[in-house]
Design goal:
Number of domains: 1
Radius of gyration: 18 Å
Largest sheet: 7 strands, parallel
Helix content: 40-55%
Number of helices: 8
Mean pLDDT: 96
Structural class: alpha/beta
CATH architecture: 3-Layer(aba) Sandwich
Oligomer: single chain
Order of helices and strands: EHEHEHEHEHEHHHE
CATH class: Alpha Beta
Distance between the termini: 35 Å
Low-confidence stretches: none
């Protein structure tokens, strides 16, 4: 396959898993992350399996306009095309609204929403120029469809991501570029969820070791969202089989969210 996938936020955890899965599927993959060491480590693991010519690592701060332009520029110089953008960068900070810090609010909007806008804007320019169509996929959350207690900044940014996805889909349809948000359920084993467990325990008034089970009990299919669940759906919407779909917010929630 000659197609190129740019995965932003791919140094660790879900992002690294998605980058490796796309490489296994034949994409040439750009591993981009604010943590350059993690990006290089993930790229090295991909290179071991698929060859160094199939992958590159780039350190980038997705919230900075000039840095995103630099990222897309070096990818364009190396590969001359970008066929798939996966925006996976994200952050969350839990606090009740009456004590929610402004800097945490601004950081959430910058990483979860502004970074998505900047990356989509810059990548779309390459896709339009190359006239091959393309796919833009945002890793979103069920918190982008339903409010999240003690997570106002995260939920607000993720709701914004849905609106941005729909607007991008309208802007880019004439270029055969489709855009979607993947609305994830709780990735219980992810570093982000694990880091928030102490705050969730306080929010719920329960011991920390009971937090995961509380979230599992909310899901009709009675388990958390696995990385493989996300990759399965992502690969479909990145493929030609989904060519007639755009502007959608696709639930990967085990039935917890159904609209």
């Amino acid at each position: 396959m000659s197609k190129v996938a740019l995965v932003v936020g791919a140094g660790k955890s879900l992002g690294a898993f998605l980058a490796k899965g796309l490489a296994d599927d034949g994409y040439r993959v750009v591993v981009a992350d604010v943590d350059g060491d993690s990006a290089r480590q993930t790229a090295a693991e991909i290179a071991q399996l698929h060859g160094s010519e199939t992958v590159m690592a780039v350190q980038v701060n997705a919230t900075q306009e000039e840095d995103v332009a630099r990222l897309v520029g070096v990818v364009d110089e190396r590969f001359g095309r970008i066929d798939l953008l996966v925006y996976n960068a994200g952050t969350a900070s839990a606090s009740k609204i009456d004590s929610f810090p402004l800097d945490a609010w601004q950081r959430s909007l910058a990483i979860n929403l502004t970074g998505y806008f900047l990356c989509a804007r810059e990548v779309s320019r390459i896709m339009i120029r190359e006239q091959r169509g393309g796919r833009i996929l945002q890793i979103n959350s069920k918190s982008g469809k339903v409010g999240s207690k003690h997570n106002s900044a995260y939920s607000a940014a993720k709701f914004g991501g849905v609106g941005l996805t729909q607007s991008l889909a309208l802007d880019l349809a004439e270029h055969n570029i489709t855009v979607h948000s993947l609305m994830l359920g709780n990735l219980l084993k992810s570093p982000m969820f694990q880091s928030l467990k102490p705050q969730y325990a306080v929010k719920l008034g329960i011991p920390e070791d009971q937090v995961e089970q509380v979230y599992i009990d909310k899901v009709p299919l009675k388990r958390g969202c696995d990385f493989q669940d996300v990759l399965n759906v992502l690969k479909f919407y990145a493929s030609d089989a989904a060519a007639y779909c755009t502007g959608q917010s696709i639930n990967i929630t085990g039935g917890q969210v159904m609209f």
